[in-house]
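Researcher: Here's a chain I'd like modeled. Treat it as a single chain, no partners, no ligands.
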Amino acid sequence: MRSSPSGSIENRTQTLDTIAAVLPIERRGELAELLTDQDVETLRRLVNQGMGVNTLRALASDLAYLQAWSLAATGSSLPWPAPEALLLKFVAHHLWDPEKRRADPQHGMPLAVEQTLRDQGLLKVEGPHAPDTVRRRLATWSTLTKWRGLEGMFTSPALKSALRLAVRARPRPRMRKSAKAVTGDILTKLLLTCTTDSLRDVRDRAILMVAFASGGRRRSEVAGLRKEQLTVEPPIPVERGPPLPSLSIHLGRTKTSGADSDEIVYLVGSPVDALNAWLAKARIDSGSVFRAIDRWGNVSQRALDPKAINDIVKHRATMAGLEAADYSAHGLRSGYLTEAANRGIPLQEAMEQSRHRSVQQASSYYNSANRRSSRATRLID
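Model: Modeled as a single isolated chain. Structure tokens:
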């Protein structure tokens, strides 16, 4: 294991904190020990250059994992550039055959390496990794190598062959991110678990309503939401009632938008009330909107980690008597489109709010909802 002077670790921790508003990172202390000074400086430089938040978060997460794996597997930090043998070792440790593992315990990732990564909270999956995850981390490794002005072995025939053979040896069906969509009826059940005026209930109610009503926002977008992104809009007049409060959320550059795009979605009515109630109760007038709350009821200055959004959905599902494994933060995104389809809202209108770019992807939720209630499914009543 490599060691770092305590002063250097402290400096890296402070640097990670300075970019936290743009790049929320969990376990900064651990990351400061894993990442080198050059790694952290690279992240800081990329923040200043305006690289997308989601891209930066993925790079930081992958880099931390790669560093931890290298330390556990070889006893040394990542070498730059990495030799081909180390790249092949990474593939062998993450893409392996479960059947062969049962016959040969040495096949795949060594148990000592696996346990080290689990103890650090970096390895959570059981069994081999998904091929897409391995490819993404190799791509991150390659990108960081190029940023250092170096050439790597990431396009070598041996690595390509190892990836191809490993994937073929252990087919893994693609799973949906959330087994069940959080449609309107499910959302109501979740909201009924947070009806008191406690900080957690007020916050979680706002999170659920804002995430769903703003088009099914990604958990990273919800966790990274800042007060400065919110703009109060003129109230929306309605028949037989007072005007509804309205505000716009400026998402900036998102996962699917162009580099210069400022994606905007809108909130109207009760979600605005829920959000305002949280901001007032937590006394938030700037910075991160959704924050952690400690056991003593103190509101943190830092943004929630995106994983916390997922945990909140599962926690509220359990409180509502639902199976937590069936729901996740992504269920709010798929649930928004499914609910829109159930209510007969045109696909294009729903996509304006969800900001989906792929009609094929968005329409899959509509097709499922429409097919279930179509005449073709009721040939025998």
